[in-house]
Amino acid sequence: MDALVYFMQNTSSVTYPYPVKKLSIHDDMEMAYMDEGKGSQTVVFIHGLANYAAAWRYQLTALRQNWRCIAVDLPGNALSSHGDFPYSMFFYAESVKQFIDKLGLQEVVLCGHSMGGQVAMILALRYPHLVNKLILLAPAGIERFSGTDIMWIQAMMNIGDFLYADELHLESAIRDSFQPNSPDMPPMIKEMKKLMQQQPLRHWRNMSYKSINGMLNEQVHQFIPDIKQPALVVLGENDKMIPNRLLHPTLSVQTLALECEALMVHAQVKLISGAGHFLQMEKAEEVNQYISNFLLSN
Fold it and tell me: How many CA atoms lie within 13 A of 289 on its CB side?
């Protein structure tokens, strides 16, 4: 099989705004992605937990006019290969690193949302020569979890009570990720359910379970001061997912933003009012403007 093949899914699949390609990373792994635009900088977009590349549709549409924009489906997610993979943060980071190498990209800008932000930070820390700039939207990884926090979450997952355990939990998690009455919420619920239905539920649960464990057990909070690349961090003031409301009910988004500014000395930290966790969709114009200004800066 050629390393690069075009792949179009048009059955009961989800809708991608641009043609989808697949790139062979290993003999048993392919990553699906969209590749749009040209420019002096290449932005690689990394989605969050149990999500897909099409969540970046508003960014690709706006930013491809001036930059090359590549949005990936992480392994085990959406149209990329499913298998008995580790689904840890380091696994995802290494997969994206090999994807970047396979395409011959250099000094990319990484843009990660939620879990994708934690993956992006690990990549920037491990391979600083590959990452020129870092964009983090409502990123996991900036919130610290104690040993007790981890034990509590793992106990909930062990009894099947976690965000992505089944369609009911999935819908609830997505609703909590958007502002009430957001027009992007119903399509996201519909598409994510389709993605869940296209694979055995045991695989979906395994991938989600391992990914959540990875976020907890491969924390980057203590290493954030070592990130040397210029960074843009954008948070939604009404985010109900980050910080974790159950474990850290007194920790506000505003406080988290201040902590992030203190830890990441080369970062610009922005707060967007009226935005939830999926701020790149709910407040696309503001997010795109912040990203554009950041990409144009030295």
Answer: 5
CA distance between the termini of the chain:
41
Letter for the amino acid at 125? L
Mean pLDDT per 10-residue interval, the chain, length 298 residues: 34 80 93 96 97 97 98 97 96 98 97 98 98 98 92 82 78 93 94 90 91 95 96 97 89 94 94 97 98 94
Q: Which residue reads 């554009």 in tokens? A: 292
Of 232, 220, 297, nearest to 270 by C-alpha is 232
Quick one: pLDDT at residue 228? 95
Tokens of 33: 């992605």
Distances (CA, A) of 206 to 46, 121, 122, 212: 20, 24, 22, 10
Q: Which residues of 3-37 are buried (b: 16+ CB within 10 A; e: fewer)?
A: eeeeeeeeeeebebebebbbbbbeeebbbbbbbbb
Look up residue 13 and give its amino acid. S
pLDDT at 9: 39
What domains does the chain contain, in order, with CATH numbers? 4-296 (3.40.50.1820)
Q: Cβ distance 176 to 240 under 8 Å?
A: yes
- Total-model pTM: 0.94
Of the candidates 282, 232, 241, the one whose C-alpha atom is nearest the C-alpha of residue 260 is 232
